[in-house]
From TrEMBL:
Protein name: Rhamnulokinase family protein
Carbohydrate kinase FGGY N-terminal domain sequence ranges: 22-261
UniProt domain Carbohydrate kinase FGGY C-terminal: residue ranges: 270-462
A Pfam short name: FGGY_N
PANTHER family: SUGAR KINASE, XYLULOSE KINASE
Keywords annotated in UniProt: ATP-binding, Carbohydrate metabolism, Kinase, Nucleotide-binding, Rhamnose metabolism, Transferase, Xylose metabolism
Family: Belongs to the FGGY kinase family.
Species for this entry: Streptomyces synnematoformans
Length: 504
């Protein structure tokens, strides 16, 4: 069963709250949100959304980062028009691990390479030959992902682009640099590179030396809330904004901002930040660098206010998005709501796959790749589109169950409720299945948790609001539209499915 509560995502009139622009870049689309915060109010509206379309050129998959920057400028112009030409601040967050290289003049050297490109194949084994995986984990606390920045840089060794580079900027830092002319490396995103020690919040020279990475490429570290400059006069002219407009570091890894945006009432919660990826875990005060954590593929990423995001990356709604793209390319464009309604009526756990399997990392032919994998205990895989969708959502719920249970076991954290934030909070079937699978209440929302976290960190730094993360989350709980799902059904079926996956 489920129920809605809260006054709605808008939270009412803006009143005396200050206007902040949140630039939130996701793997599928970018958006600029106008947030107003202060005086006990929190209001958020989308002012511009634009596609993020990777481009394959000469066999390499790139981000079209210039198109993304153009979308950012259009969004800032729209935000300014809504706010009367003045903004109290701008913050930028995006996906992790990818970067742009700058030459000595500050010019970009080629479009950044996409983390799903195949160039990192074999790089983990290459690094492990000089720095064993267990030692790398003790130094950085990062789960093994084949596209971590350290592997990308290892793959780029000896290339003309890296040889010419004088600066390396992670994607949100690159956008902030173009907006302000000032370079920095924001801490929460730096912690996803597998080059940073989460205990000290500084780069690990041991790892960098083993990987042959020049740490001098990284500009100084910034923490969420730190000043990152002001919009350049040329940017203000292009966007129609009246200056000065401060730019502040936020949790620039979008998951760090999304976790700030979790409307938890106390500390006994797990979160699942859903979108292209599902990032499921708990918030801690210190990293967990145990061998058991490494074996379970858990990561320690830094969060806002000295917190640690102890979580596991799961493929997420990427599986569904790729199925939809394949069907559309074949001339079978299905309406998602209708597919989800049919999937809800399909038998539970008829077929399922390991949503963490690297087999599903690359784009293309996703239904075809899911079908042979989704046959546990001899059951047939999904045949219709709706059955394939049910397989995907059952698989995600099962992966959420495993991640939440493992996070509790490995960290010792008590978990009484699971918060689902991000795009997946809209998916009622996924939220209901996650509650059933975890055997815990699920609170779904807000959908735009990353943008809200971005705005709230800016607002606190500007003095529009104050308090701890707990205070920020109380404001979210009062102002955002949330939906609660209670667990139901027979949990033994989920236990059986989990055992089947573990033994396969």
């Amino acid at each position: 069963m489920s129920g809605a509560y809260g006054p709605g995502a808008g939270g009412g009139a803006a009143g005396d709250a200050l206007p902040f622009a949140a630039v939130d870049l996701g793997a599928a689309s970018g958006r600029v949100m106008l947030g107003r915060a202060g005086g006990g109010e929190l209001h958020l509206e989308e002012v511009h959304r634009f596609p993020n379309r990777p481009v394959r050129l000469a066999g390499t998959l790139h981000w079209d980062v210039l198109a993304l920057y153009a979308g950012v400028l259009d969004g800032l112009r729209a935000a300014g028009q809504r706010a009367g030409g003045r903004l109290a601040g701008v913050g930028v967050d995006s996906w992790a691990v990818d970067y742009g290289l700058l030459d000595a003049s500050g010019a970009l050297i080629g479009n950044p390479v996409h983390y799903r490109d195949t160039r990192t194949e074999g790089m983990a084994a290459k690094l492990a030959a000089v720095l064993p995986a267990a030692e790398l984990y003790r130094a950085t606390g990062l789960q093994h992902l084949p596209f971590n920045t350290v592997y990308q840089l290892l793959a780029a060794r000896g290339t003309p682009a890296l040889a010419a580079a004088r600066r390396l900027l992670l994607i949100p830092d690159l956008v902030a640099y173009w907006l302000t002319g000032r370079a920095g490396t924001e801490l929460t995103n730096a912690s996803t590179t597998a080059l940073l020690d989460p205990r000290t919040g500084t780069f690990s020279r041991r790892v960098a030396e083993a990987a042959g990475v020049d740490l001098g490429l990284f500009p100084p570290l910034r923490r969420p809330g730190d000043p990152a400059g002001e919009l350049l006069p040329a940017v203000r002219e292009e966007t129609g904004l009246t200056g000065p407009v401060p730019v502040r570091a936020v949790g620039s890894h979008d998951t760090a901002s999304a976790v700030v945006g979790v409307p938890a009432r106390d500390a006994d919660f797990a979160y699942i930040a859903t979108g292209t990826w599902s990032l499921a875990g708990v918030e801690l005060d210190a990293p967990v660098l145990t061998e058991a954590g490494r074996a379970a593929n858990f990561t320690n990423e830094l969060g806002v206010d000295g917190t640690v995001r102890y979580l596991r990356n799961i493929m997420g709604l990427w599986l569904l998005q790729e199925c939809q793209r394949t069907w559309a390319a074949e001339g079978r464009a299905y309406e998602l709501d209708a597919l989800l309604a049919e999937a809800a009526a399909a038998p539970r756990l008829r077929s399922y796959v390991d949503a963490g399997d690297p087999e599903f990392l690359a784009p293309g032919r996703m239904p075809e790749r899911i079908a042979p994998a989704g046959r546990p205990a001899g059951r047939p895989a999904g045949r219709t589109a709706a059955e394939t969708v049910r397989c995907v959502l059952d698989s995600l719920a099962l992966a959420h169950r495993r991640a939440v249970a493992d996070a509790r076991r490995l960290s010792g954290r008590t978990v009484r409720v699971v918060h689902v934030v991000g795009g997946g909070a809209r998916n009622e079937l996924l939220c209901r299945l996650t509650a059933d699978a975890c055997g815990l209440p699920v609170v779904a929302g807000p959908v735009e948790a990353a943008a809200l976290g971005n705005v709230l960190v800016q607002a606190r730094a500007a003095g529009a609001i104050d308090g701890t993360l707990s205070d920020i989350r109380s404001l979210l709980h009062r102002t955002q539209s949330l939906r609660e799902y209670e667990p139901g059904g027979d949990e033994s079926a989920w236990e059986e499915a989990e055992c089947a996956l573990r033994s396969s």
